[in-house]
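Input:
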Amino acid sequence: MKRLDDRGRIDHDHSFEFTYDGRTLTAHPGDTLASALLANGVDVIGTSVLMSRPRGVVTDNVTDPHAFAQVGTGSVTEPLMRMNEVEVFAGFEAEGRLHQGLLPTERESTRFEKRFAHCDVLVVGAGPAGLSAALAAADAGSRVILVDDHPHLGGALLGGEKLIDDKPATRWVADVEARLRANPDVTILTRTTAFNNGDQGAVALMERVTEHLPEAKRDGRALRRMWQVRTHELVVATGATERPLVFADNDRPGVMLAAGVRGFLHRFGLVPEKLVVFTACDDAYRTAIDLAGAGVDVQMVVDVRKDPQGSLIKRTRELGIEIRDNAAVIGTDGDADGVLTAVRVASLDGGVPEAIACDCLAVSGGWDPLFDLHLHVSGGSRWNRKLVGFVPDGSLPGIRVTGAAAGIFGTAGCRRDGHVVGLVAAEATGHGTTADGPAAPEGHDANEGPTADFVDVPGTERIHAFVDQHRDVALAGVDRALGSGIHHVEHVKRYTLVGTGTEQGRTAKVNAGRLTARHFGLDFAEVGISNARPLAQPMTFGSLAGRSLGVRFDPVRTTSIHPWHVAHGAIFEDVGQWKRPWFFPQGNEDMDAAVLRECAAVREGVGMMDASTLGKIDVKGKDAGEFLDRLYTGVMSSLKPGRARYGVMCKADGMVMDDGVVLRLADDHFMATTTTGGAAGVLDWMEDFLQTEWPYLDVWLTSVTEQWATVAVVGPKAREVMAVLAPELDVTQDAFKFMQLEDAVVAGIESRVARISFSGELAFEINVPMTYGLALWEAVFAAGQPFGITPYGTESMHVLRAEKGYFIVGQETDGTVTPLDLGLDWMIADKEFVGRRSLRRSDMLRDDRKQLVGILPVDSKDRLPEGAQLIDSAEYEIPVSMIGHVTSSYESSAMGRTFGLALVRNGRNRIGETIYAPLADRTVAVEIVDAVIFDQEGARRDG
Amino acid sequence: MFEIRCPYCGPRDEPEFKYGGQAHVAYPADPELLSDEEWARFLFVRDNSRGRYAERWNHAAGCRRWFNVIRDTGTHELVGSYRVGEQPEDAR
Ligand SMILES: [Zn+2]
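Output:
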């Protein structure tokens, strides 16, 4: 196309260079990538996805079926960016990738932001209807947010030469904008797309903040910002989109949508040499009139209708432009690159086609009102035969569709309707009344004739007559779908992929639906089109995520002792959100060597562990004991202050949910510990029962997980270390028994010490306020030096507890395991508790339920993989029935061999039997043993 | 994203809340009196109807209180909220 110096809203006085497909091109401030490519004569922007046909820019907006580019390079590259939305600047780089983009190769360094906003009235679309609505609502006193996806307000008024009150429409736009900007309760967001409408007025917007600026001018601001707006009233003034006509070679570069051609003239000063217009409606005549006015050689308007009337046709004729009615473009010709050179025009009654030379064919098949934001919340639509388009059907609370989106075409009609809608929306928010509001603007629109219900040119060649240019689906493809027995429009869509493209099939869906209806002789009003689902425009994941990445998405929790672990080379394991030391390798130790050393230290000397991450819930009130009795399988109310008891809780279905030790601190004060990962869920669970089932209980629950740091001192020499640390505390067995608590000063810190063991060894858990955790840890480490104290991590903890047959929630249990399956019959007290009734459901009483047992590989060096399945015989044929699986598997330093825990059908009655683990490379024989493999008599607990 | 009215805090965005399933399904007063079938019905069977539905929500990232909401499952209209102990007619 050619640039006219006196047309368009670009800055003709300045220009800059940018790069497309490695070529250096020139553009002006205000150019989009699409307009800049047209101005540089880049008629072919790429090739189509299936047939590799040359394709060019089709229109000036985001409905263009293939104007997509890869923008930027390196870590800031973004795929499938809309060429009509992307604004170019000096140094801008892009590549023509119309269908498949490239993902950035490294994490995006780009900044995306999010913000929240509330308003009375959100107006989406700043054309004549949206501007009128925003002004009426704002003048009535509502808080208004007005958004438009273009850099300038005005909508369709920017792409035409309309008059309002006998002045250019752009003067009216500027006047309304000035009045809105002067109102402090109005927020105007340009370059902003409303892409999702949720429930209760939750509308998501994407604002392109600095994307259109060169890097140097971005000043560290976000590239894009997502707004999550909660509005009382939503005004949908999103206009309408033009649809093409279907004929042979209608995808040739140079074949464009009529309003797009007009838009490129008025917005960017771009014109072709010779133009032909092909239309089924009056609106395309505006393109002929406007381009003729700009000096373009308008060869002909080809109209499928017979004898069209109306003021636009009259005006076209007055300009001396030939109008060929009852006729169609039946094909196009191109040059060596495939770019349009001529169209062939014939009467719809037959006859010899006539070739007409042109470099641009402006096509219009009619207009589709665009009201996705109404459809997103289950709003209906209906086919309007007069408009030959879908319009919104029914109304939804708080949502009003106006202007072309509602099927109202014509500037005066849009202004009137928008004004009324704005007043109604304001009234709904308690501002002004429709009765007393200012009168609607005057004015009348040109008399336009009806649009023809016309999709494809009869008898046209079908292989290259495209219905969906993005997906490369021509009439032949639709024929194939319909011929294969498909008769639902949703199935046609999935079979052909019509309407599923990156551009949401805006130019294809209605035509495809009409072809389907016609094929089956059905009324299109009943067939309908495929659903419109969010998002209204595709958005990149990066811009949706904003800054919610990494630790801002999922926080990392660490204990106050964490810096010591880091300084001493701990390897960490993620447990829920917590970082826990997994093991502390020394020298060149691998994990196995480190764990063997750590376990040996605990069994033979003394070890220390950071147990601060265990969940801790403070339970207070005079009914605290009764409350805990109802949730744990055991009795807690009988605990004496200063004593602790292990407990298990079930869900209502009887499956083990969590476990931990409950400490009684006073008559009306308990502290329940939970698993590290289960803490939040257990608190929620307790709160649920307390608030909804037993609100009459006097109980108060508080999470204190992060208030306490816990250091466990574990092993036969633990007592000697404690004696050094707390000289005033009597740690003898008679004075300080298992499951006893003592308040004491440990290393100069007021502490709560408990004799709790998760390893079977003599152990003291020292609890101090979290801020003292590191000081305590360092003191324990120093005091333990003469005894060879060894810090250990979660892996050693797991080995030590497994040797004792202690299960871990989430490792031995998976939501299908009851306390009985774990052999915890002794913990089921004779009283009601949540889930108890489930334990005598028939399925729980089956004797072939999987039960927790220990397993010893016959080859004592062979360590099974956790999760390995177990079967009955060494020889087997697939399929073979599985009788259980390995839940834990380790090497034990204490026993000098490998061992494991497993859930095995009827396992407790099969102790002593040999079963098999079939692995990819071998079959391992294992002996079933009691779950408690080490220290079965519990002799080590008291040191 | 719903806007849910917490009876204690007022209207807040959905991410502050946790869903709790159908309302008015009390834990049986004496589960031991129930047959296996009756118990299973309590455990596993809930209404899944179109239209107005009473359901539980917890203002998990707010006041942490449980309350009930009447929601139209067909239109996602949130008809009203009410406190534990109140009846659906009290929803507002
Ligand atoms: Zn609340």
